[in-house]
Amino acid sequence: MHATPETGGTVNSNGLHEVLDRTATVVLGKSHVIRLALSCLLARGHLLLEDVPGVGKTTLAHALAHGLHLQYRRIQFTSDLLPADVLGASIFERDSATFRFHPGPVFAELVLADEINRAPPKTQSALLEAMEEEQVTIEGQTRALPDPFFVIATQNPREQAGTYPLPESQLDRFLMCLSLGFPDRDAERELLSGTDRRHLIRDMEAVLDPDRLRELQARAERIHVAPAILDYVQALLAASRDGDRFVAGLSPRAGLALIAAARGWAMLAERDYVLPEDIQAVLGPVVDHRLQSLDSGDHGTPGERLQAGVPLP
Amino acid sequence: MSRDSAIDTAQLHAAAVALVLSALPHAGQLPLWVLMLVPGAIALRLALGRPPGRWLLIGLVIVVFAAVLFRFRTIAGPTAGGAFFCAMVALKFLESRNRRDLGILLCLAYFLAISVFLNTEAIGIAALVLAAVLATTVALTFVAEPSGPPIRARVRLSGTLLLQAIPVMLVLFLLFPRLPGPIWGLGDDKSARTGLDDRMSPGDITRLTESSEVAFRVDFEDEPPARAERYWRGPVFWSYDGRAWTKGESRHRGLEDPTATGRERAYTLILEPHGRKWLFGLDIPVAADGDVKRSTGYNLVTDERIDSVQRYAMRSALDYRLERELPRARRERALDLPEGSAPRARELAERWRDEASGPQGIVDRGLAFLRDKDFVYTLSPDPLGETPVDTLLFETRTGFCEHFASAFTVLMRAADIPARVVTGYQGGEINDDYMIVRQSDAHAWTEVWLPDQGWTRVDPTGAVSTTRLDAGIASLEGADSLDLMSRRDSGALRELGLLWDSLNHGWNRFVLGYGPALQKQLLDRLGMDALGRWALALVMLAAIGLIIAAVWLLALRPVGPRDPVERLWQHARQRLGRIGLRAHPAEGPIDLAARVRRTRPDVAPAFSRIVSAYVRLRYRPVPRDSAFQELRNAVRAFRPRRRPPRDSHRNNDQNRPAD
Prior knowledge:
The complex is a heterodimer of chains A (313) and B (659).
Chain A: H1 16-26, H2 31-42, E1 47-50, H3 57-67, E2 72-76, H4 83-87, E3 88-93, E4 98-103, E5 110-114, H5 121-133, E6 135-138, E7 141-144, E8 150-155, H6 168-171, E9 176-178, H7 185-193, H8 197-203, H9 210-221, H10 227-241, H11 252-268, H12 276-287, H13 302-309
Chain B: H1 9-23, H2 32-48, H3 54-72, H4 78-94, H5 99-114, H6 123-144, H7 151-164, H8 166-175, E1 199-200, H9 204-208, E2 214-220, E3 231-237, E4 239-240, E5 245-246, E6 259-260, E7 264-271, E8 278-279, E9 281-282, E10 285-288, E11 292-294, E12 300-302, E13 310-317, E14 320-321, H10 328-333, H11 343-355, H12 358-372, E15 376-377, H13 388-396, E16 398-399, H14 401-414, E17 419-426, E18 429-431, E19 434-438, E20 442-450, E21 454-458, H15 460-464, H16 466-471, H17 492-512, H18 516-526, H19 533-556, H20 564-578, H21 589-599, H22 604-619, H23 627-637
Helix pairs in contact in B: 1-2, 1-4, 1-5, 1-6, 2-4, 3-4, 4-5, 5-6, 6-7, 8-19, 11-12, 11-14, 13-14, 20-23, 21-22, 22-23
């Protein structure tokens, strides 16, 4: 009897499964989102959580940071936040009579940029540039950001008042855009009856450490992507570009993101190769925030429509 | 790049092979020296490695032109023109410099190959032409794609191309307006062809029997007639000059139709070309389709010379009455004897006339004379000299059918009984379901006119040798000199010959015999009988256009995956589809397997094996293990049942194999 490759791994030797399990005990009923968030992390991507306040966005970020033993900083974006508040600034010290750089909260391994769309675009850009280049240049000096470096940004849906929506070019910097959604009935019940989530996080033991995470990220990059998978990705990209379904098609960067995310997903499934199902699993989170449907009459998210419309090669 | 370097050796060799094969069917049709020009030119060109100089070429053209003109006195006509064309094609090879030259040369090679059909349409030649066309197409692929696939792939490609041309060929064959008569109107003299002549002198038919060539073949609609009844009527001779018989004048005003007194036989006669304007019919032919007329001797004649295989649907009456009233003019012609010829025979005949009671009595006396006086029927009779009839009857007493027929007719005429000589064939061999009549079956007999009965066949040969009519020519003394195919002793070689003849018969019947008459029949059946020649041509072009469009669409249709792994995977998915589990095109293998597990747990283990092997082959790094074998075996073994077994929902967890 041959073993059938499964989408979900059963035996976990590298601790990732444990991270998943522990996080799931804190963020109840959201194991799929947790898995996607971890894939994003393994793919060295940044994550955008888009949801109404109070569904556990911060808790998720916090729990992940704890489970992975990452240095965690939270930046609450407000309308008067300045770039220097994010990146840091050189401050004159009277003792030594010199300017000394005080690194901002971005110099952390896991940064939670809370309600990123409340800050003015200038501040948003400061963070996003740092994310893109993995370094910060202030007053002519370039300072590298830590590795691993993982940003989880949250934002309220654009309809809410007092926000500066991220433009498409900025959204492209995020590997995935996830939405937690309300917990289901059972999870909510447990949430309501249980203890404070923050205590749970504080009690959480670290499963991995940054070194181990770096190693896992490097391994994820080596996961085999067969020509058939590349064909499939190309077919998806092509389908997003032709026709009149979307305002603009997916960029090659979106294609790279798709493959990287699928590698992370495959790694969580304990496989050293990517399946079409992996691509499909990450398709929505990777492309939904990059595509804008032309006709609102269509049903389903852009990712769902792409997946249904493109046969496996 | 110089112009010479545009041709490489492979192209030149391929063209040489094509050219040799295109010239090969002409062997036996064109003079040997013309044919030898082809290998000669090839050898010269290959030895030189480049085309020869201009002056040498011009000199060669002049020499070849002069040689053809000297040999044939013309350059027109199938043979002379063919020879000239063949020689020029050989010279074209000699001067080929670049790919364009080779392209032209190969188009000429096609024409050279098919031009042999102007001279002969035999099936063996057709096979050779087919080989030549294939070789020429292969050579064209060399010209089109110099550094292309290996030769075997080229042959396969060319074969495919030719196969694809078959529908077009069929439409052209069936619908191309057929013209009566030969295509080539220039007319070479075909006197060399074997067959009955329009005059008969002693020894003519004897010579003919040396040939086993087929004269014609016959398909009877029902049972063929008995051997003794197989008289095939050919030219009828009235006029005698003391030695040779000729037709005499052939006005046939007021010729009455023969009266059949028995059942008529229907049959199809497929006549080999003999270069004459007559055909043959079972005695006595009462009807024939097409352009056929009746002559005064009730033999059948045509307006056109028969230079190609012809096919006639005919009817004959084996029991008949012919011309009960003989007009005076014809009676006189049937009694005419040249002055002073055969005096002893005349004397004898006059004695019979005086002694016998009536014409029938005279005929009986004549036959009795031949039977009783130790005449010998032989293929090698003694020479007859100046007075052939008297010498035969009273001295040598050895002869062949034409001698006896001639002598008997003279005797009858001398006894005041109108008589004439009929030539044709007697006999015929049954091969499978048709009859072969060969030149060696050539025969001559006498017809006498008797009051009340009309013309009556009397075969004096039958009186001399009874076996000739029952057993045919092969029973004859001296039959050893006969051709293999005319002899009776059976051997493997003869069997093979008959098999070959059977093949030829089919070829003649269905391919060569398809003339204007059959085409009309076909069009009648297709409901296109009202179409004129031009409308027919339009229909033909439209049909060809449709075929090309169909081939085009066929080539554009989506084909299944070429990758064997994908093909096997598709098979498996199709089989799932048959049991109602249609896979979505965007559904991944694992998802599909999960769905199968949910809906049809009985099928799941077998399908999981397929998915496992497929995923390994398709998505894993370096799948060089036994996965393909496993996939193939698993897909072959995958025969899901349409309905799940009744208890399947109870042992979901047991992972029982589906079958």
